[in-house]
Design brief:
With about 375 residues, the chain is an alpha/beta fold. Helices cover about 40% and strands about 20% of the residues. The strands form two sheets. A ten-stranded mixed beta sheet has the order 2-1-3-12-11-4-5-10-8-9, with helices on both faces. The relative contact order is 0.19.
């Protein structure tokens, strides 16, 4: 379904010199505690073939941890990630829909504290299964409405008004535009080497709402365009296009095959990437990587799924693919490619699938099948 090797395989945004890799495991909430251990199983399964050794560090964060301790993201977790690990896997967060005093999302905080400014979400169908989809959504990860600067105003007539800051900076827009353009070039390099794809040439689509938000979204749009125009010696092969976000949603569902790399501010990118999961069957199969200049956290796109928590039927594929994506950004493309191949082989058959894909298999039955294929 998804093959990130067609996305970033030839790139090393950073590399790890040591062959013993320390990986932080942060299950978080709900089914995160069931799927993150599957990432560890997969890493252990590919280690010997590729001459890698892994050590794992269990770390705490999440709403359940907040309810127990009053802290959603312990300082110790952040410090260990920074100083003692090469990469990490993060499970899920049960963020409440109503305000809880003192609580804020730990994954949002982690992205900021570790400088993980890009959320890279490949969405790719498996050949012969479902609709043809082959896109990567690149979501700016540090600002927009997710700066969480809100206030409640008491009006003279006794009513209330809520206000939230939407922050878009030239710095962050340029940075996310660059990684989107670079990913488009990397995808084209893989196509030139014979990788299967729906696209003949690279396309980057800027998603915005600058027809209404002419200052904030206008700056996002203009900054990426200016960077693209100023670097034509590098990006001349890329077609830079635009979509207003509501039109983007419509066209993504009507004709997903036309999109290659999509770059968006934080909120739009969040909505688009979850929506795109419907094109390939389930949130349970869509991975992501939170990427900075020197660190990466793999993160399945699904939430904590309290309705199936503890039943042993959570789909582990999003976590397994996120594990492979983490490996790629760490510079280990070959074990990642093996993982993608094994997952695709599982998805092409109907025998062993979790209920979200219409099957009756358990989480561990799917993991065992993928490990067998490895």
């Amino acid at each position: 379904m998804l093959s990130a090797r067609n996305t970033i395989r030839s790139a090393r945004l950073y590399s790890t010199a040591s062959k013993t890799l320390r990986i932080g495991l942060i299950p978080g909430d709900g089914i995160g505690r069931e799927v993150i251990p599957t990432g560890r199983q997969i890493l252990e399964a590919v280690s010997s073939k590729h001459g890698l050794k892994f050590e794992f560090v269990e770390l705490q964060a999440g709403f359940e941890h907040f309810k127990k301790t009053g802290t959603a993201l312990p300082d110790e977790t952040v410090e260990i990630l920074k100083k003692e690990t090469d990469g990490a896997l993060f499970g899920a967060v049960s963020s409440p829909t109503t305000k809880v005093a003192g609580y804020s999302s730990p994954i949002v905080a982690l992205r900021k504290k570790l400088g993980l400014y890009a959320n890279v979400r490949p969405v790719k169908s498996v050949e012969g299964v479902g609709r043809p989809v082959d896109m990567v959504i690149v979501r700016e990860n540090t600002e927009d409405l997710y700066v969480k600067e809100e206030k409640l105003i008491e009006n003279p007539d006794g009513t209330k008004t809520a206000e939230a800051i939407k922050r878009i900076s030239e710095y962050a827009s340029k940075r996310i535009g660059k990684i989107a353009l670079d990913i488009a070039l990397q995808r084209q390099a893989q196509r030139d080497l014979g990788a299967a794809s729906l696209h003949k040439s690279p396309i980057v689509t800027i998603t915005h709402k600058s027809n209404v938000l002419s200052v904030s979204d206008g700056l996002f749009r203009e900054t990426i365009r200016n960077f693209y125009n100023a670097n034509q010696d590098k990006y001349s092969s890329i077609s830079l296009q635009e979509q207003i976000v509501d039109s983007m949603v419509y066209r993504m569902f009507r004709e997903p095959e036309i999109f290659d790399v999509v770059v968006a501010p934080n909120l739009y990118g969040d909505i688009l990437s979850d929506g795109a999961a419907a094109l390939v069957g389930s949130l349970g199969v869509v991975p992501s990587a939170n990427v900075g200049d020197d660190y990466v956290i793999g993160e399945p796109c699904h939430g904590s799924a309290p309705d199936i928590e503890g039943k042993g039927i959570a789909n582990p594929i999003a976590t397994i693919r996120s594990t492979a994506l983490m490996l790629e950004f760490m510079g280990h493309a070959e074990p990642a490619a093996d993982i993608y191949t094994a997952v695709d082989a599982n998805l092409k058959e109907d025998a062993i699938k979790t209920p979200d894909l219409g099957g009756k298999s358990s989480t561990q039955e799917v993991v065992a099948d993928i490990i067998r294929r490895l």
